Amino acid sequence: MPRRLPDSSKVLPSEITPEREYLSRRALLAGALSTAAVQSIGGFSRAAYGQSPGALTYVHNADLSVTAAPNSYRDITTYNNYYEFGTDKSDPSENAQKFRTQPWNVTIGGEAEVTGTFALEDILKPHPLEERVYRLRCVEAWSMVVPWIGFPLGDLLKRFKPTSKAKFVEFKTLYDPKQMPGQRVGVLEWPYVEGLRIDEAMHPLTLMAVGLYGKVLPNQNGAPLRLIIPWKYGFKGIKAIVSIKFTERAPRTTWAGAASNEYGFFANVNPSVDHPRWSQASERRIGANAFGPRQPTLPFNGYAAQVAGLYSGMDLRKYF
Amino acid sequence: MWRIRWVLKPLVFLACLLPALRLGVGALNAVEAWNIGGISLGADPVKMLLHTCGRWTLNFLMITLCMTPLRDLTRSVFWLKFRRMFGLFSLFYAVLHFSIYLLLDQNGRLSDLWQDIVKRPYITLGMLALLSLIPLGVTSTAKAQRRLGRDWTRLHRLVYVIAILGVWHFWWQVKKDIREPLLYACGLTLLLGYRLWKERRSLSRLSAARFARTDAA
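^ Those are the sequences you sent over. The predicted structure of the assembly is below.
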């Protein structure tokens, strides 16, 4: 039985209400508060708003969104790196359809005052959702623009009252080879582990995502809970999170552990530090203009103004 | 005989063109947002074109290298009639692979190409393989074969090196999942191992025969 956060009700919503309905019910409540903001969204189809299963209620955060046109839902949901479901880009959309995302528990541990295992509903409950259109830059030198729905990771972490020893945050993906066929193959060490320095985790741009294009996150995109750090390479955005741990030392992350000369702990998007086997100076934007030219990659994926300060004085060639 | 030349060969030729045809239709679909034959190159058409042509280059190299073992196994020279065609298709897909890389991936910037060749070992290997494949294609005619005589055989042994370079190029390019290049490496090991084994066997037979002769004398 998962523990409950102090502010949760006695009966777990996961015991009575399917998550999707739960989320859309929340959506109705929150909707009343944020109607004005919602009306100003525009751009995406809002026809099914609040009605279709999986539709979420959220406020569009224009300040933290890029103005570039987002990639199509189809591109975002069929072109995925999610090795738990296979190493081909099309594998996750094919193999993740039956993945069960409820019930879902998240274990909070390490250097914090509040720890334990919590139902996903309790994790999500206090957080109003917002839409943020972020650039996504893969370490493989392609990129997309994705309208995520989520909330700042920092808001979640603060609820657990991390202690002064909490210098890093470690995240883990579910380990379930029965459901995740890719985990039956030793391509990577399972479960997938990612990590952030605490100031990176608390940065307002760092997003805990639960949806995209206004709907509940599809399984192949990391449902039910995934991380988005828009100034870092995509592999930092760990999917299907079941564990969050505050640590004193930098966690050993999966890709850095697999090839430490190719993938660093920080993995900040940096056009001037090449991957040993390919250039990071430019990227191919997936989408509309299929055979269009590559575009230059921006330092910190275009978010330098907001995040470069986190790394002042650091040698980014050494800490790549 | 005419059946091989006028029926079977053209059929095999068309079959070898199918992957390129598919890619062509896929590229057209991607540009025009059509859906001819339901063929899609996915979200990243350039990568799909690039990788598919690369794979077919290797596939045709492997198929070409299968012809001699098949001849030995079946004791029929039938297979050798297709060897040149397969070899040339390997060159065809290699040239496509390179052109897609240069024109679509690198936007045709030759300065970037040179940088890539010098800086990235897997691209160096790929370029070496392609450049070595060209003389084999050029000397693939019956006329060149006659003119070069024994040198032709020596020159065309280069195909073993090219195949190794090609598989190596693939291996160094993949991010982490090496299962596919490993499969090619295993196939190539078998095909090249067979040739080594044959060579050693014929050498030992030769020395055995010589030994027998001295023994009799």
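Chain A has one domain: 60-311. The two ends of chain A are 41 Å apart (CA to CA).

Shout if you want it in another format.
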